[in-house]
Structures are given as C-alpha cells and as structure tokens.
Amino acid sequence: MSLTTLSSVLFRLFQYIEGANLNYSRISMTVPVLTSIVPGAGPLHSSAYFVKFYLPTKFSAIPPLALPELNLRPDSWKSHCIAVRKFSGFARDSNIVKEAEKLALSLSKSPWANSTSTDSGYAYSIAQYNSPLRFIRRVNEVWVDVSGPDEDSCKSRLMAEF
After folding, report:
1. CATH code, 3-70
2. Closest by CA position to 50, among listed 122, 129, 104, 141
3. pLDDT band at 123 (very low <50, low <70, confident <90, very high)
4. Rounded to an integer, what distance in angstroms lies between the CA atom of residue 72 and that of residue 65?
5. Which of 19, 54, 94, 103 has the highest local Cβ count within 10 Å?
6. Sequence spans of domains, the chain
7. Full-model pTM
8. Which residues pair with 143 in a beta bridge?
9. Per-residue pLDDT tens digits for 10-63
10. b/e string for 117-153 if b means 16 or more Cβ within 10 A?
C-alpha cells in the first residue's frame, strides 16, 4: 500500500468523523483503527486494503452516512473468532509482514493449525490503538480470522502462546 493512498483514506475518514456526513454529526474517534489486507486484489496483483474504525455505541444502530464525495461506506461484522498477535512500535510495512508471519507460525504449532478462515476475504488485519503522535508504549495487533467446527470452539482456548 502506498503512503499517499493510505493518507488519502485516513484524511477522508477524518473528514467523516469531523462532520462530513449527511447529518453533520461529529463522531468521537475510536480504537482500534483497522487496516485489512486483501492480497492480489489491487492492480497488477498487488495487495489492496480497507481501513476501518468502530463507531461509538451512540451511532451503532444507524451510522451517519458519509458525504458521497468521500467514497466511504459502512461495514458491519458478524461475530467471529480471530487469532491475535500483539506488537509494539509503529506499524510499518517492514514489521507488519514479519508479525503476520510470526502469528502464522504460532498458529501452525497450535490446535488452530489449518483453521484460518477466508470468509472475510482478508489475509489479515492490523489493529492500531494509538495516535500517530504517541511515540512510546505503542500497541498494535495483527489479526487473522479463524474458524472452528462450531461457534463455541474459539471460546475454549481464549489465550495461548506458542
């Protein structure tokens, strides 16, 4: 993903939360901000991505619609299971892929081996919890969807490290 394109998306999201929506509502920023990577969906088989953030509860039932020129759309996720790997520092191309690989390696050595789900269409997502102006004690996560034989399967092992 290019920095210019990502900056454009983030600027449009910023405009949206500052009131560039059909009812001119200001929306409190929430965390995490998610960047979901879709491999091979971009031009010349490059990766594409979606940037998302959670709406405050106040707006969850009826989200304010973005102004059409912002080219943003609401998305809702059904309940699903994810595997998570936490990492610090700034989330950059150079360390995101390494962290995703470490998560994949951990999963391969766990009861969750071969359980990654492609239902979402994303290879993985990066969750960023801090403002870009925060330089120390930053928290990020790499997320990957996992599936099990039934709904309760992800509840059985809430935390494990391999």
Report:
1. 3.20.80.10
2. 122
3. confident
4. 8
5. 103
6. 3-70, 81-154
7. 0.80
8. 84, 125
9. 899 999 999 999 999 999 988 999 998 887 756 666 677 888 888 998 888 888
10. eeebebbbbbbbebeeeeeeebebbbbbbbebeeeee
